[in-house]
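pasting for ref
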Amino acid sequence: MRAGVGVHLAWGALFAGVAVSLVMLVFRPVPGGRHYEYAVLLSAALTVIALLHAARPATFFRKEVLVFLLLSGLVLGAVNLSVLKTDSEIIRTYQTVFDALESGRNPYTSGTIFHDIENAGPVLGNFNYPPLEIYPYYLAYGVAGTWNLAVLTAAMVVIQALCGLALLLMFPRVPPVRFIPFLPLILLGEVKTTAAMTLLVTVLILSVLKRDVGAPRTSRRYLIAVLFGFGLTAKFLIIPLMAAYYWHHFDFRDLRSLARIAVDSGIALATAVLVMAPFGVVDVLKNTVLFNLVLEDRAALTTFYPNVLSGPFAWLGLKSAYPSVAVAVLALAILAAPKLRLATAMLTSAIVFLLVAPTPEPQFIPTLVFIVVVAQFTALEGRGLESGGEAGNNHDKRS
């Protein structure tokens, strides 16, 4: 009964998110708010992703669903490529980050990093992405000897191509042709913003988890912790994934599980500290995590795109209460993890995180779709690649 109530509440929350975003789109109530359609698109996409995850493999791998996913990836990729601009904010932001680094300054304290607020113009401030979002693009800048749209786009596509290759390697018994419907979304589902490293870290974690099924090894457990640590210094989607993963492993009947979680979490946090250390851990946290939670601080450097939770709070003049409520809602989703299968727990925490985030973040849609694809292929693999109908009865048991 309780499980049924929880499922109904989850679906109700998803559809409520779509309804709230539509109301905001109609009334446009937040002063300075822009692009209300982003929240509509994100909440609708998250609902579809949840439906795809809930589907039996026999349904998920139907030709109609695969064609839908293929066309979605192709259309999204075409739209992404069509709106790229050579002088976009992200190009200029990273150029100022590189300039700061080459002049010996810390981009998290220099005050020289370019930001662009719609209808207000350029503003200089500190960098507000975590440090793992610097290294691969700084490397691309060094290899290419220049920085422009082509270099940034090529760097992201290369990283995302590695993610597609990893998907093939995860399921060596699956004919490569069966992955074609998912590749456009992985390769080109996001090329406007730097979400590639978050996708890559998530893919690596899922790859290790896949290898660990049935034959757990302590070394893999520690490797997962290190990967989560790197992920904490990429964009923030890894935070709910990590929290759900470790809380899912907590066993109320075995307190030793809490000790294992503490050790692994410690390894992850130590890894994150090492990555942040060259820039100052406090400075990084101040300009990333805290910056994104406080709506007033965000407004000083970025355009505010109202999201499902932040929009109504800004509308009602309750911006100061938003951080506490957002964290509380996310915590409730994570606390439910032990009652769910692992893939479901991680996906649920990620969906809730995106709904309560300050602004809509459709850049993470490919990452969530990747989680669903891995879960569905794993479920199908459990009963044999060609027995889709039978595998559907065993959905997600191994994910």
